[in-house]
TrEMBL record:
Residues 1-294 form the F-BAR domain. Residues 156-172 have a biased composition (Basic and acidic residues). This is SLIT-ROBO Rho GTPase activating protein 2. InterPro entries: AH/BAR_dom_sf, F_BAR_dom, FCH_dom, SLIT-ROBO_RhoGAP.
Amino acid sequence: MKCLDQQCELRVQLLQDLQDFFRKKAEIEMDYSRNLEKLAERFLAKTRSTKDQQFKKDQNVLSPVNCWNLLLNQVKRESRDHTTLSDIYLNNIIPRFVQVSEDSGRLFKKSKEVGQQLQDDLMKVLNELYSVMKTYHMYNADSISAQSKLKEAEKQEEKQIGKSVKQEDRQTPRSPDSTANVRIEEKHVRRSSVKKIEKMKEKRQAKYTENKLKAIKARNEYLLALEATNASVFKYYIHDLSDLIDQCCDLGYHASLNRALRTFLSAELNLEQSKHEGLDAIENAVENLDATSDKQRLMEMYNNVFCPPMKFEFQPHMGDMASQLCAQQPVQSELVQRCQQLQSRLSTLKIENEEVKKTMEATLQTIQDIVTVEDFDVSDCFQYSNSMESVKSTVSETFMSKPSIAKRRANQQETEQFYFTVREHYGF
């Protein structure tokens, strides 16, 4: 019972620790929710006050702006979810642990009463066994004592008979009359002694028989009580104690604890599912980041800016209405020579443009390779060993290491500078 009492105390302490843990975790979740709400409201207010309201129309939202809006919505969603999680901890899970604790204490008190009754019954059986054993030992001791006295009487009888025989052999004859009188007296004395011894032997034989019978009955009672007691002890330790723990002390404890912890799992898994749904929407928006569509959308939004102007019309001067080239002599030969010069120049520029085009394409591809490198996987940072210590992060050795960043940035800026220099020199 002391062991079960200690187990009950440990159980109550465990349930109290669980309550304190979830109460503290609820506070943390609520603080986190409030901070997320503040973060989202800060930038949503900034977004609401922007001058470019047309960017926020569904049909005109640019793909990066859509990612930004979804990111802010995800923060607000996480804020609501963590508020819900805190509420579940406080108003659902913790009351469950309180109820389990109360039930465990109440059931243990009842179990203690049942266990005490079982122990009392067992002690009663043991006391009965002890009493029967004492009776058996007493009767068996009496039987042994009676047997010893009987043997002593038998020895006295044998001794008396032997003594009588020897005395008869040692006697010498005197006068006939005196001899006869002496023999009669001696025989009378011997017969009297033998009868006394025989009578004592009979009494002791009867006493031994009586005690032997009592000892046998007492031993039988003792053996039967011993078998019953062993069965009771076996039943107590093998069945009663196990049933006391299973059907009294632990009645509903593990099932109730299972339900409380499954409530926690359900809340956490639904929180994760909600987060995944929001992240899936952001991932879809990230997959739809499209520079071409954004460019087209931007030009459509500012059509008056990006629309090509009207062609310049020939403005005649002082009534000169000729609006086409004149190839009359001597202008014709000059135009022909100029045409040949332009064709030659165009051929040279075409060759140069092909080389510049190849250089520009290679440089542009290099820039695109730099800015599209897949360095965003940080899954290694969330792998844990059996000792629950974080595995050494590889991020510091790759993308986020200062030497790596400096080198990448220098290469990118140098390539960009070369690209725009070529663009400025040769035009678009």
